[in-house]
Amino acid sequence: MRLPPMQALRAFEATARERSLTKAAQSLHLTHGAISHQIKALESDLGVRLVERAGRGIRLTEEGERFAARVRTAFAELMAAVQEIDSRANPRQLRVSIPPSLAARWLLPRIGRFHAEHPDIDLVVNSSMAIVDFQRDEADVAIRNGFGHWPGVRIEHLVDDAFFPVCSPRIAGGVPKRPADLARYTLLRAEGEPWKPWFEAAGLDWPEPTRGPYFSDSALLMQAAAEGQGIALGRSTLLGSDVRNRVLVRPFAIETPNARKMYLVYPPRNADSAKIAAFRAWLKAEIAADQAASGVRKRR
């Protein structure tokens, strides 16, 4: 039997991983029809049924489950081999995966300092909302916001996070002096960053805001606040140097903890990487400098 085409195997692996033709198509930047066609062609080549309908979705057959496990392992081995060759061919590169908001607000303003300290390492920054899969994506290390529960990777806590209001020092009406003054301002909102817990911490019995500008990207939220468009619920990991430079101000000391924290994540095979060790040490030094400047201790 000849080896099935690689594109058909990729379509099947993505479908098995996502348990959805639509999500598989999105992950491979193909159409739903193209994924379906590739799987049908693969089933025809193998002479077995791999995927079947289940209500409005799909599920793998028994043969499909077994085949998916083998394909997943083969792809992981193939990617490891590719990454090993790439690492040898590009020994200076360190490929970093990071969410767009952290990239724009935290990492990018500091890259010059990293390069000055480590001119022998070239950072390649991949900004994406998708959680990198080290078995199939081109990344050596990742910075993630989350709860610290990701299987199959090494996870190192970097810093905790907290929510608090921020605004431009030149906001119309002046910087609010009391929490209750927020009733007079536009409250900027962002996905996954509710105001109500902070209201409660400030002693305000207010409902969650349902009107006003809403942002899917926290970096855009911070930019809108800096432009004087309203008051945002900021995060300590996204402030950068804006408070020190008076681009943004914190009207109140009240803050609420963010259950999501900032982590350094990498595959076990990279545990002894000198480049990751240098990057880790630099990250921790930057975080310590931020905390010293703001008088904040690292919380566990």
Structure overview:
Helices cover 38% and strands 20% of the residues. The longest helix has 28 residues, at 62-89. Mean pLDDT is 89; it is low at 296-300. The protein has nine helices and ten strands. The chain is an alpha/beta fold and 300 residues long. The strands form two sheets. It has an eight-stranded mixed β-sheet with strand order 4-3-5-10-6-9-7-8, sandwiched between helices. The chain has a two-stranded antiparallel ribbon with strand order 1-2. A hairpin with a 2-residue loop joins strand 1 and strand 2 (57-60). Helix 1 crosses helix 2 (21-28), helix 1 crosses helix 4 (62-89) and helix 2 packs across helix 3. The chain folds into two domains: 6-86, Arc Repressor Mutant, subunit A (Orthogonal Bundle); 91-300, D-Maltodextrin-Binding Protein, domain 2.
